[in-house]
Inverse folding.
């Protein structure tokens, strides 16, 4: 049997490394290395699977995994979600659930009513997979069909301006914050975008970051097309070219540490949202039309994550690894209580 691709190789290794600091130990199941057991010095056991720790309640975690359900409850409590967010189903699933008018064609009519460009994404996806900014009918149907090959529910929503930030909350404290910047290259006036991308990939490999840039990714080609560029274009020196619309680190995005600059009001907001959604550990993603160091003005809650994976973040350097180890040490202390 072909070995299943490992979703996370970082959490187990980090827990095994830091657990002894509080007199605990972490045991990984050796074949698949995706589940583990933490034994605290009291003798109590706790478990984890992939990036999900035995910390958040099951019901709240399941709601957080479903973007539409999470949006419903966040909106009901007065949090500003991305405008126009609405789910639609694959044709097969629309029939199965008795909602034939919520199919891909209905989704297109709705998107046209919102006004292009709009964002489409899988309702239960992660790591930015199949998230697309689409500008017309052809792009819309292509992106939606790609989503429906992975998920039976898609989310259609307006595109909003701003910077993408993730705040990681543990109980009543923001323990990490960083800005997420989409995959990009900086022109040197000599190299093509394809050559610059290859160099970026070499930098990822040198940093032991397992992100693999797909040079033939249609999403990259589409993003470049809307900038009147191609992989053969040579950007001017000092010109930054963005190659994807999502800012996930898993798709080649960069992170900028922001923990020390978060405005107290944003910290309070993230902590309150986490508690209101019934969670203890949560990654709260904001789109902020401004800066996170300023008092909240125009912003939206992009989504929440009850199992905020930090695999790609930790591989960005020694400083990031130290931040993540300290973060998970705090998590273990809270789990021990």
């Amino acid at each position: 049997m072909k070995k299943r691709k490992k979703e996370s190789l970082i959490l187990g290794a980090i827990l095994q490394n830091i657990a002894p600091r509080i007199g605990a130990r972490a045991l990984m199941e050796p074949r698949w290395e995706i589940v583990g057991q933490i034994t605290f010095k009291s003798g109590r056991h706790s478990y984890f699977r992939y990036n999900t720790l035995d910390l958040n309640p099951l019901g709240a975690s399941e709601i957080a995994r479903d973007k539409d359900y999470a949006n419903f409850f966040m909106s009901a409590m007065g949090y500003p979600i991305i405008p126009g967010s609405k789910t639609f189903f694959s044709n097969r699933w629309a029939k199965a659930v008795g909602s034939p008018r919520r199919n891909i064609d209905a989704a297109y009519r709705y998107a046209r009513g919102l006004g292009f460009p709009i964002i489409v994404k899988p309702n239960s996806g992660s790591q930015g997979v199949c998230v697309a900014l689409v500008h017309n009918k052809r792009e819309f149907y292509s992106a939606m069909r790609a989503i429906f090959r992975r998920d039976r529910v898609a989310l259609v929503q307006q595109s909003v301006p701003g910077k993408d930030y993730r705040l990681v909350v543990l109980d009543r404290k923001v323990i990490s914050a960083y800005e997420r910047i989409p995959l990009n290259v900086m022109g040197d006036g000599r190299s093509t975008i394809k050559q610059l991308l290859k160099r970026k990939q070499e930098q990822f490999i040198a940093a032991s970051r397992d992100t693999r840039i797909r040079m033939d990714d249609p999403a990259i080609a589409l993003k470049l097309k809307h900038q009147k560029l191609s992989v053969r274009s040579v950007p001017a020196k000092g010109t930054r070219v963005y190659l994807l619309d999502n800012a996930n680190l898993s798709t080649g995005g960069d992170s900028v540490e922001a923990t020390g600059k978060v405005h107290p009001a944003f910290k309070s907001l993230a902590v309150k949202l986490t508690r209101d959604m019934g969670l203890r550990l949560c990654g709260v993603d904001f789109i902020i039309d401004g800066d996170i160091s300023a008092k909240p003005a125009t912003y939206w809650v992009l989504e929440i994550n009850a199992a905020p994976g930090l695999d790609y973040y930790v591989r960005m350097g020694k400083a990031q690894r130290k931040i993540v180890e300290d973060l998970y040490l705090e998590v273990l202390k809270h789990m021990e209580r």
Summary: The domain at 55-80+160-182+245-308 is CATH 3.30.470.20 (D-amino Acid Aminotransferase; Chain A, domain 1). Residues 148 and 181 are 26 Å apart (CA to CA).
